[in-house]
Amino acid sequence: MIKRIALTVAMVLSSAAIAEDAANTTTDIESLKREVAQLKRDMRVVISNQQALAEHTGLIKKNDQQAVQIGGSATLGKDTAKVVLIEFTDLHCPFCKKFNNETLPTLKEKFIDTGKIFFVGKHYPITSLHKNAYIAAKALECARSQKIDNEQHYTDAKNWLFNQGSRLYSKELSIFANEMELEQKEFDACMESDTVESAIDADIALVKQLGLSSTPAFAIGLKEGTTVTKWKTFTGAKGIDNFTDAIEQFLAIEQ
């Protein structure tokens, strides 16, 4: 009996030790993940500093970049902001919708509304994938043209078109104009206008000039008047941490 009790106690103690080891292992893994994430952030800073030092000392030359024009595109935030984030969107792209619904609101709260970045909304409708995306882009611009300085109106119109998605036909355009409280005749005339098409075509030409070919696509850089300089580009519906890292790197640059 004593041997049996001793064996049972030993088994209990062994199980407890195994459970403790498993808990410690889980804690260690989480700790390692945090350390790796911090090392990645530190490495990006080091690489950025090395790049700046090399350019300053003349070891390498800065890339010859053409300044990107902000133009008459939709904007959010204060134009006195130091950093500009340009979005090229396809209103029928599910990944663009994901960025718009999940990441942009946080960016707006943390960086746009606080005056740290100036957001510029441009178009890149990929009609080979989404046949009515160009029509959606025109609808957004025609809605914006009636309330050009109303940021909330632009946001509401963009959200409506994202939610409608590819189910955008003539009937839906009338519903859109009504819900956005637009003057219908003016909206219809705008939808037939070459002017709005020229503006969208200019956005498409710009995104291709920047070497981008998918959506959502972004350019981030420093604001100099009505242009963006020292820009970098990236694509995909990235999370808020990716945008935060990029924005903070540009905010740290002395102009």
From TrEMBL:
Source taxon at top rank: Bacteria
Entry protein name: Thioredoxin
Organism field: Thalassotalea profundi
Record-annotated Thioredoxin domain positions: 13-252
Keyword field: Coiled coil, Disulfide bond, Oxidoreductase, Redox-active center, Signal
InterPro entries: Thioredoxin-like_fold, Thioredoxin-like_sf, Thioredoxin_domain
Stretches of the chain forming a coiled coil according to its record: 22-49
Stretch forming the signal peptide: 1-19
One Pfam family recorded for the sequence: Thioredoxin_4
Family under the similarity heading: Belongs to the thioredoxin family. DsbA subfamily.
Keyword Protease: no
Keyword Electron transport: no
